[in-house]
Amino acid sequence: AARAELRVRVRLPGGQVTEESLQADSGADCVSLELRAADGALVTLTADFRQEVKIFRALILGELERGQSQFQALCFVTRLHRNEIIPSESMAKLRQKNPRTVRQAEEVRGLEHLSMDVAVNFSKAAQLSSHIHNVCAEAKEAIYTREEDVKFWLEKGVDGSMFEVLPQGSDLPELQRCRHCPDRWKPCICSYSLSIEWYPCMLKYCKSRDAGGKVSSYKCGIRSCQKGYTFDYYVPQKQLCLWDEET
Q1: What sequence ranges are listed for the domain Out at first protein BRICHOS-like (predicted)?
Q2: What are the residue ranges spanned by the domains of the chain?
Q3: Can you tell me the distance from the alpha carbon of 166 to that of 91, in angstroms, rounded to the nearest whole number?
Q4: Of 45, 89, 128, 147, whose CB count within 10 A is highest?
Q5: Which residues neighbour 61 within 8 Å (Cβ) at sequence distance 6 or greater?
Q6: Residue 222 in contact with residue 22, Cβ under 8 Å?
Q7: Which residue(s) pair with 206 in the sheet?
C-alpha cells in the first residue's frame, strides 16, 4: 500500500493564495484534502472509496462577541460516486512538482445544492465509514446526510438506527430560512457553502504507438477540478447559523 502527501498552492476566488494539503492512502483506499477558505474556515474533504462515502468537514471561526464558541464544526456526509475524484492508488503516485506554482483548476464543475435532511448519530457512524470518527469528532452534534444517500447505504446493509430524519419545511410551515429569521433562538433552515478549489478529478490518458504500429493508451497525468457545494440543513436555533444572514 502506498501513502503520499502533497501540498499545492491554490488561488481563492478573492485572489488570495492558500495552501492545500492532499493525502492519499491506497491501503485504506481513501483520499483527503484540506484547505483554509477565504473566510478563515478550515475545510476538509475525505473520500472513502471502500464505503462509497465522502465526508466534508468545516471548522468555522465563531463570533465570540455574539456568544458563539471559538469555532463551530459541521460534517456533511454524502455518497461518493465513481469518477468524482481520482482513485487513491493514482493519487498516492502523484509527485510534488514545482511546489511554488500557484495552481488554478482546469475545469470548474457546477455548484451542487444539497438538502441535508437526516442527522447521523456519531457514536454509531463508524460502520458507515471508519473515518467519521476522526474527521467529525468536533462535530458530534452536527453530522448531516440526505435521505436519498441513506437509502443507498441501507441497501448495502448499513444499520439504519444511526440515522434520524430532521424536521422539514413541509412538517413545520413556520420554519424559515435562517437568513430571514429575526429571532436568534428559533429553529430555521441553515445554509452553508464551501468550495474545493483544486482537486485531481480525472486521469488523463495518452496514446503511444509501438514499432509495429500498435496503439496503446497509458496514464499520463491528471485533470484538476474546482467544485462548490451548498448544504441546507435544520438547526434548532439560528444562533448556530450566524454566517447565513442577508448581507
Answers
A1: 5-153
A2: 3-205+216-240
A3: 36
A4: 128
A5: 39, 40, 41, 70, 71
A6: no
A7: 218
- Residue labelled with grid coordinates 465522502: 54
C-alpha cell at 149: 444517500
Is the per-residue pLDDT at 158 higher than 70? yes
- All three cell numbers of 111: 455548484
E-strand stretches of 154-187: 163-165, 176-177
Closest among 32, 233, 18 to 144, alpha carbons compared? 233
Cα torsion angle, 123, 129, 134, 139, sign: negative
Helix (H) or strand (E) holding 76: strand 71-79
- Per residue in 111-137, pLDDT tens? 999 999 999 999 999 999 999 999 999
Q: Is the dihedral of CA 229, 232, 233, 238 positive or negative?
A: positive
Looking at residue 99, its amino acid is P
DSSP state of 236: S
What is the rounded distance in angstroms from the CA atom of residue 188 to the CA atom of residue 178?
Answer: 5
Residue pair 132/142 in contact (Cβ under 8 Å)? The answer is no
- Contact (Cβ atoms closer than 8 angstroms) between residue 52 and residue 21: no
